[in-house]
Amino acid sequence: MIKTERWTVVTLALAAGILAGCSRHSTKEVYYLVAANQQLPYWQTAAAGFNRAAAQLKVTAKVVGPDTYDPKAEVDAMQKAVAAKPAGILISVADAAMLQPEINGAIQDGIPVITMDSDASSSHRLYFIGTNNLEAGRVGGKRLLAHLGGNANVAFFTLAGQPNIDERLKGFKDMLATRTGIQIAAIIDTKTDPRIAFDQAQQLLALTGPKKIDAFVCLESACGKPVSDAIQRANATDRVLIAWDANPETLQGIKAGLIDSTIVQKPFTMGYFGLKALDEVFHAPQQKMDRDWAADPFSPYPAFVDTGTDLVDKSNVDQYIAAAAQAK
Prior knowledge:
Blueprint: H1 3-21, E1 30-34, H2 41-57, E2 60-64, H3 71-83, E3 88-91, H4 96-108, E4 113-116, E5 128-130, H5 133-147, E6 152-158, H6 163-176, E7 182-189, H7 194-205, E8 215-218, H8 224-233, E9 240-244, H9 248-255, E10 261-264, H10 267-283, E11 304-306, E12 310-312, H11 317-327
Parallel strand pairs: 1-2, 1-3, 3-4, 4-5, 5-11, 6-7, 6-8, 8-9, 9-10
Antiparallel strand pairs: 10-12
């Protein structure tokens, strides 16, 4: 080997060694997931996806927010996350009016913010990752219609004021409006409290005659089990119950024949994809993030990433139970 070739090899080896010692990522890069109701299995699954992506990228993930449905406490958590000046924030918006100023403030400070699960579409967030809740509601509504006759009363259990749940309800209403004789007899705000769901279901089950409730629909994950318990206690086996999300109790209720079906979202995917999306924004920042990206035909960001849904009933519930066990 001649001298010039030898030095070329040495130089390339040194360069390779330097590059190997450098990494695009660092544990000093901190990403936040902000959400309310952290005690719910749904949010534990979302956090698992967020943490999985952080471990793969070798960055730091922090999951913050109240254990219960408390929009004010979520605002406090968001403020603390922004003050920490992280690499990015993924947030599920419990109350759009309350959280919009905090989202806009973070964007103005140069902190990337992406919403997940529940959006704040009027804010300056970069984009939304989650479920097409309107279409998911229509899927549930089609399932409900398949069980109802010409005249029926339906009760919904919801969470008032949360944008994603409002869209689910609208999707159901769209489908129910296609058939005369089906009435929405009650819309119950459970505040994600299982006790409220159980007590209200018991009261509705006591109605008879023309006021009898023929079907119960849960639009948030916490109320499937308590409504099912109330129906079982009343021995009202002729009633239809459609739930939401893949809580273990909900899946077992379907397997046992106590719950007809549930609309399953993908919170793990939302958390996993959300952190990786924030990481991409952090490492390829735009000069000005505070703009209407949805109205820009040359935007580097999508307006909405649909993570998908599925309807789970007795025909495929075992598949979901097995997947949940494997993920532990």
